[in-house]
Design brief:
Blueprint lengths: L8 H10 L6 H13 L3 E5 L5 H12 L2 E6 L6 H4 L1 E3 L1 H13 L6 H5 L5 E3 L1 H6 L6 E6 L6 H13 L1 E4 L3 E4 L5 E6 L7 H6 L1 E5 L4 H11 L5 H14 L14 H13 L7 H6 L1 H4 L3 H6 L2 H9 L5
Parallel strand pairs: 1-8, 1-9, 2-5, 5-8
Antiparallel strand pairs: 3-4, 6-7
Helix pairs in contact: 1-2, 1-3, 10-11, 10-12, 11-12
The chain binds adenosine-5'-triphosphate and magnesium ion.
Magnesium ion binds next to helix 3.
């Protein structure tokens, strides 16, 4: 089983870029293979590194609808797959009784007509050219939910007691993401191809910020990419509990432009630390002295 694919890894990278997403060769390969092999892709990575965005860009690149299942603690099958429209079923049965009809009412109300389709079922039943299904933040759902997903992930089908097995007309291109707040079930991992999405190289971050904040001067953009890159590396990263993601770089560049900043200095960096960090201690840790040190630090060769 294989998904519609791109002629080459480069062609896929190009299509993603046209959708506004910058992927390096390693990431493009990690997306290319699941498409070729018809397997789900499990993307793990720190917050804000572009996991969700990748699914959106891929749906644009493939010109398939994006169907999204946001996971959370307590997510249940009926919210993910389907539920019966009890109110409509009841009305139908009352009306039939009122008309004095006899017959197999139960069979009548357990048909597709009374089914409320949730994301998984919508994805399975999506007409040509099929859908991209994003199962976002699977680590937030609980283990029984993961177990429930196995049939879908392995065979692109689900069993509905009243209707039987629903098999995909077109296998949905399926992407799962996780922030790794907990370790996922091995059985889920085995059914997926795995990719750890890392913070971007400086060149790629530069390209992203340049594309999303074109108003920023080239100098400022380069400084932002360099500065944020340093914050994520030793020795500076040790000063913070959580490193900024790509989303933060982009936000920061926008904020700096809003402040008419042409070039980064320690004062403005420290004053805007609240954009880069979301924890009080981290914000406080980016002092002017530290910012100066980062600005003046050497680049590794
Ligand atoms: N490769 C990329 N190309 C273009 N923009 C990107 C890329 N990666 C990230 N971004 C930008 O960063 C933002 C955050 O990315 P996204 O929401 O996908 O992160 P995430 O990994 O899903 O984070 P979280 O774990 O918090 O959900 C996106 O809205 C997008 O603007
Ligand atoms: Mg996300």
């Amino acid at each position: 089983m294989s998904h519609p694919s791109f002629a080459s890894i480069d062609a896929l990278g190009q299509a993603l870029q046209e959708a506004g997403y910058f992927a390096d060769r390693r990431l493009a390969t990690a997306v290319f293979l699941p498409l070729r092999l018809g397997r789900p892709l499990l993307l793990e990575g720190e917050p804000g590194v572009g996991k969700t965005e990748l699914a959106k860009a891929l749906s644009a690149a493939l010109q398939r609808a994006l169907i999204r299942l946001q996971c959370y603690d307590g997510l249940e099958q009926r919210e993910a797959l389907y539920e019966w429209n009890y109110a409509a079923q009841l009305l139908h049965m009352r009306a039939a009784e009122g008309r004095g009809e006899v017959g197999d009412l139960e069979r009548e109300v357990y048909t597709g007509h009374y089914l409320i389709r949730r994301p998984l079922l919508q994805a399975l039943q999506a007409p040509e050219p099929g859908a991209v299904l994003l199962i976002d933040e699977i680590d937030r759902a609980d283990e029984p939910f993961e177990a429930f997903l196995l049939e879908y992930l392995g065979e692109y089908q689900v069993s509905i007691p009243e209707l039987g097995t629903v098999r995909a007309q077109v296998p949905p291109v399926t992407i799962l993401t996780s922030n790794r707040t907990r370790e996922l079930n091995d059985a889920v991992k085995r059914r997926c191809l795995y990719h750890w999405l890392d913070y971007p190289e400086r060149e790629r971050e530069l390209a992203i910020v340049r594309a999303q904040v074109p108003q920023a001067s080239e100098q400022l953009t380069a400084q932002v990419a360099r500065f944020v890159g340093k914050l994520r590396q030793s020795p500076f990263k040790d000063a913070f509990a959580r490193a900024p993601g790509i989303a933060e770089s982009v936000e920061w560049a926008k904020a700096l432009v809003a402040l008419d900043t042409l070039s980064l200095d320690p004062e403005v960096a420290s004053d805007t630390a609240g954009i880069l960090f979301k924890q009080r201690e981290d914000v406080a840790a980016l002092t002017q002295d530290l910012a100066r040190e980062i600005l003046h630090s050497e680049d590794a060769a």
